[in-house]
Each structure stands twice: as C-alpha cells, then as structure tokens.
Design goal:
Blueprint lengths: L7 E5 L4 E6 L10 H16 L5 E6 L12 H11 L3 H5 L6 H9 L4 E5 L3 E2 L1 H8 L2 E5 L3 E3 L13 H9 L1 H10 L3 E2 H6 L5 E3 L4 H13 L3 H14 L4 H16 L2 H11 L10
Parallel strand pairs: 2-3, 3-4, 4-6, 5-7, 6-9
Antiparallel strand pairs: 1-2, 7-8
Helix pairs in contact: 1-4, 5-6, 6-7, 10-11
C-alpha cells in the first residue's frame, strides 16, 4: 500500500501481518503532534482492512518510542492546539490517550515489538497492546517523574492490571528503567527475545498468530478487553453470545474438517 503518513512506515505481508513503524529515528521516535495524530488513524485503518490479520507496532532505528518530544517548539504547538478552539480545550481524550483507545478498539491482535527504549507514552503504547515482545537490548520506563509529570497514554490504567498495583506504583514513582529479563519475569512483557534476530523472531511469531481464525481472534480480543471492568455474569453472557456467533462461521466448519482429515485448518475469516 502507498504510504500516506509522514512519521509512520506501513508494510503488509501476504500472510496479513501489517507492521506499523514509528518513523522518527533521529528523535528515538518521540511524539510530536503529527505522530500523535497519525498513529490512531493507521491502527483504525488496519482494523477495518480484511487483508490485515495481525498488527505489529515497532520503532525505526534504535528506539521504540521515547515519549513526548521535549522541545520548546513541540510543547508550544501542543499548547496552541489545546487553546485553538472550545472543542479542543474541552477534549479530554486528545493527544496520546487516543493511542490506547485505537489499540484496544482494533479488531486485530496488536503486538508491540519493543526494539529499543520505550518511555512515557511509548511505554503506554506497549501496555495497550495485546502482546508485548521485547528485545533483550530494550528497556521500558514510565519516565514521567524524571520530568515532573504524571502518567498519560493509559499507563495508570494498564500497568496495575498487568503487574499489580504495588509493582505499578513502584515503577511509576521511581521512573526507573526495566530491562527485558525483569519485564518478562514480572509479566510486563510476554516474551524477551535476543536482539540479534529480534525482527525475524517477531515476524515468525506474528505469522503464527495471523494463521488463526480472524473472527475468533476478534471475538477473543473483545472479550478480553471488556473483561477488565466487567462482572462475571455479564462476561459469561458475552462469552456465550460470542461463541454462538463463532459456531455460525465457515472457519469453525473448516476447523472440524481439518481435525477429521488430520491437517492444519486454513482460516478465511468467513
């Protein structure tokens, strides 16, 4: 597909893996207004595209995302936008909060491929993802306290749910770097992988997920996202409705045929 974005690179494999690469390597992919605007659009585009089965988000160069670009120009531009209209001044879901909404609302599994430092909003982007794969050369840090700030990008929402309130509090208050081995041990990431062939391992992993049933994957993701703030009976009802829907799909019939024929199923998302 043609690339319509200034700060993103978009690639899609024939297996349906769409890689969205944050592309400001000279700034460690730090967030300016343009990148903040472009990423949700690209994620929503991938969610709607039937050719896409899995979304991978990563960073160009040696960083994943260094958080807010702390230049006077960027800070001033952000302030000017916030004060540009009544709508903008009242918008309490602007900026990188929309990243978390776009990732969780995406009907495709989203993998954060953490190739280098993920700080502040960059760490929040990884936390919103469904699966986090981390290079052993990378680090994750909330980072906010270093700059006298408090969390954004969903960090205060996702982090306690992933690793518990006590650990989340320590990581936010200390703003320390978390290396890959600790991140894997405490459940902050799904897998820590060697840096030397990180991209290839991410590609293989994403390809395996992409071979799964698109409708089943979408239903599972919706259930998991909703489960964070849902009582058990409501969740059980949602599960029943979702699995009934899956039973009406061609993919389930294909899986049953494949089981009898002792072969891998070929899912088509129908």
């Amino acid at each position: 597909m043609s690339n319509q974005y200034e700060h993103l690179l978009i690639e899609t494999t024939q297996e349906g893996v769409r890689t969205i690469t944050l592309n400001r390597p000279e700034k460690l992919n730090a967030v300016n207004l343009k990148l903040a605007d472009e990423l949700p659009v690209a994620i929503e585009e991938a969610s709607r595209d039937d050719a896409v089965r899995v979304v991978v988000i990563t960073g160009a160069g040696r960083g994943f995302c260094a958080g807010l670009e702390l230049s006077l120009e960027n800070i001033q531009a952000s302030r000017e936008r916030k004060n540009s209209s009544r709508h903008a001044s009242l918008d309490d879901l602007s900026w990188v909060g929309r990243w978390a909404l776009a990732v969780t609302g995406c009907d495709k599994p989203v993998i954060a491929a953490i190739n280098g430092p993920a700080v502040g909003a960059g760490s929040g982007l990884t936390l919103a993802a469904d699966i986090r794969l981390m290079s052993d050369a990378a680090t994750i840090s909330t980072g906010y306290m270093r700059m006298g700030l408090c969390p954004d990008a969903g960090v205060s929402y996702f982090l306690p749910r992933l690793i518990g309130l006590s650990r989340a509090t320590e990581l936010i208050m200390s703003a320390r770097d978390v290396k890959a081995d600790e991140a894997e041990r405490i459940g902050l990431v799904s897998l820590a992988l060697p840096a030397e062939n990180f991209a290839a391992q991410v590609a293989d992993y994403a390809k395996q997920i992409a071979a799964g049933p698109p409708i089943g994957l979408a239903m599972a993701k919706r259930l998991l996202v909703n489960s964070l703030d849902t009582d058990m009976q409501t969740q059980l009802r949602r599960e029943l409705a979702s699995i009934y829907y899956c039973f009406t799909t061609e993919d389930v019939a294909e899986a049953m045929r494949a089981f009898v024929e002792k072969r891998p199923p070929v899912f088509k998302g129908r």
